[in-house]
Design goal:
Blueprint lengths: L1 H8 L1 H24 L10 H8 L12 H21 L6 H23 L3 H34 L6 H19 L2 H12 L6 H21 L2 H15 L15
Helix pairs in contact: 1-7, 1-9, 2-5, 2-6, 4-5, 4-6, 4-8, 5-6, 6-7, 6-8, 6-9
Length: 249
């Protein structure tokens, strides 16, 4: 149960990583929605040209979907490794990775919303997006954890604090990065297909619910029992009241 416990203990860094992703995404969404030409600063011109012609770039031909799924998996795993590895540079590059990805995500949704295509993009994203973004946020949290260990090591040496933080971050990396294979498979094969939106939504909700049920609930009862047992063991035995006469020995 190391992964769920480590994940729950990392909640401050998870919140920070999520904020670094979603706050810029929300800002970029409204900026590009108000001024669609701003998308040229965050998206390739060919994607923007497609949207200008009221077309999405997510229509992957059936014959290319297996290959595309492999490329998506590789890219997502690479981004996760970057978010993890950049933690040793005081976490600053991790912030850049999370913010830049958030801007791209929000900007693309803002652009498609401006041209009435946001529903189609959401249809594409919902099947794989919950798991994919959850893993990216967790890996970003691991990188921030390492960076903060160097910035504020507490009463430990920086090297010792970094070692402890790296071990925890590595648990997140090894435990969650394989899920990007599942997300990439869905993104490359199911997301661009003609599968009904309700089915894609069900896949997204099911995979996301299973992931968070495992991370947030697994091992909680065992942890509570251990804490209760530790508290009982550590509690001192009650002493006899002073006014109770002891039997002569």
């Amino acid at each position: 149960m190391t992964l769920p416990t480590t994940y729950r203990q990392s909640w401050p860094y998870l919140v920070a990583a999520a904020a670094l992703l979603f706050v810029p995404a929300i800002i970029a969404f409204f900026v590009v929605l108000a001024n669609p030409d701003a998308a040229y600063a965050i998206a390739p011109p060919d994607i923007i040209d497609r949207v200008h012609h009221h077309q999405l770039w997510t229509n992957i031909p059936p014959g290319e979907r297996v290959q595309t799924a492999g490329l998506i998996m590789t890219n997502n795993i690479w981004v996760s490794m970057l978010a993890f590895g950049f933690g040793v540079f005081f976490g600053l590059p991790v912030i850049w990775v999370m913010v830049s990805n958030g801007i791209s995500l929000g900007g693309l949704f803002g652009l498609t919303q401006a041209y009435g295509l946001a529903g189609g993009l959401f249809d594409f994203v919902i099947g794989h997006g919950v798991v994919e973004l959850s893993v990216v946020i967790a890996q970003g949290a691991g990188g921030l954890m390492m960076g903060w260990a160097l910035i504020s090591p507490g009463n430990r040496k920086r090297s010792d604090a970094l070692v402890i933080a790296t071990r925890r971050a590595f648990v997140l990396l090894l435990g969650l990065a394989p899920l990007l294979v599942i997300a990439g498979t869905i993104e490359g094969n199911i997301s661009p297909s003609d599968v009904p939106f309700t089915a894609k939504l069900a896949i997204g909700l099911a995979t996301g619910s299973a992931l968070y049920a495992y991370l947030l609930l697994t091992g909680r009862s065992n942890t509570r029992r251990r804490d209760a047992a530790a508290a009982t063991t550590a509690a001192p035995a009650p002493s006899a009241p002073d006014n109770v006469r002891r039997a002569p020995g």
